[in-house]
From TrEMBL:
InterPro entries per UniProt: PRTase-like (IPR029057), PRTase_dom (IPR000836)
Residues of the Phosphoribosyltransferase domain: 10-151
Key words, A-Z: Glycosyltransferase, Transferase
Protein source organism: Nocardiopsis mangrovi
Keyword Amino-acid biosynthesis carried by entry: no
GO molecular function, one term: glycosyltransferase activity
This protein's name: Phosphoribosyltransferase
Length: 165
């Protein structure tokens, strides 16, 4: 990874999501469900949902990054876990902001694989080292990415409770 950063603005994010949606539509893939990987994937899934006219959006909370370049040993699925009944035999588009190591995407793909008709991934950024090669990628980079929703520190720090890790 280079010392330079990739900077995504909210305006450029809008362009990225529309272009991702165009890739999905041009490919003929019609997802029944968009499964977002929280938190960064929430923004992507919402935009894709509108652009692809998909109202059935689900969330899977996965924690892996704890800071800039800092990760847990393995990604952890946080509750609530999506019901596999809701995903059963559906075409699922997994949405996230970045496929960095691909560890989180692999966890979500493995979770879906036994239950869905088909699963594909759409990300704004994919890094060369990603273990998962996504079907739909807006840009490829090896830089650290400044996303508009996470570049500034929180306005307040929450007290960490039993469900917060």
């Amino acid at each position: 990874m280079t010392g330079e950063r990739e900077v995504l603005t909210y305006e450029l994010f809008g362009t990225a999501v529309r272009e991702l949606a165009r890739q999905v539509a041009d490919d003929g893939f019609e997802p029944d469900i968009i499964l977002s990987i929280a938190r960064g994937g929430l923004f992507v899934a919402g935009g894709l949902g509108y652009a692809l006219d998909v109202k059935n959006l689900h969330v899977m909370n996965v924690e892996f990054y704890t800071g800039v370049g800092e990760t847990l040993d393995l990604p952890v699925v946080l509750p609530p876990v999506p019901s596999t009944v809701d995903l059963s035999r559906r075409r699922v588009l997994v949405a996230d902001d970045v496929a960095d190591t691909g560890t989180t995407l692999k966890l979500v793909h493995d979770f879906c694989a036994e239950h869905v008709a088909e699963v594909r991934s759409a990300v704004i950024y994919e890094k060369p080292r990603s273990a998962v090669k996504c079907a739909y990628v807006w840009r490829r980079t090896d830089r650290w990415i400044d996303f508009p929703w996470s570049v500034l520190p929180p306005v307040t720090r929450r007290h960490r409770g039993a469900l917060d890790t």
